[in-house]
Fold this sequence. Notes:
- Keywords: ATP synthesis, Coiled coil, Hydrogen ion transport, Ion transport, Transport.
- GO terms for molecular function: proton-transporting ATPase activity, rotational mechanism.
- This protein has helices spanning 10-72, 75-81, 126-148, and strands spanning 87-98, 101-113.
- The protein is α+β, with helices and mostly antiparallel strands.
Amino acid sequence: MVRLNVKPTRMELNNLKERLKTAERGHKLLKDKRDELMRRFISLIRENNRLRKEVESYLIDNLKSFAVAKSLKNSLMVEELFSIPSKEIELFVEKENIMSVTVPRMHMNITSQNENSEYSYLSSNSEMDDVFATMNSLIDKLLRLAEVE
């Protein structure tokens, strides 16, 4: 506790009462801010756990399917299938201020979808097509997971 050198007058008493009220209000505001930050942090942790489980299960299933699809094709053919990207994606990272805490926000812009890409459904198999489609649909979830983490 800090000891103040105070003159024993009524005016000093009123000034000290005002300072005490201000300090108590500031303390309450800081406690409320801490509680709100913790509430948001806990909700982000829950979302992170949910997204991580979902993405990991998709990736595990997709990698198993890819292993099966790759075993049915020549490795050079598989490399050729995935050498040309099917989408061109721009990633924008912005910083957002939430209660004086800077957090990143990521936005994705798919600039071009190569409809006439070199990916041929004739030279691949159905497992490879499923892997391709699943990985394309997983991009949004991966981006959200990166943002939350």
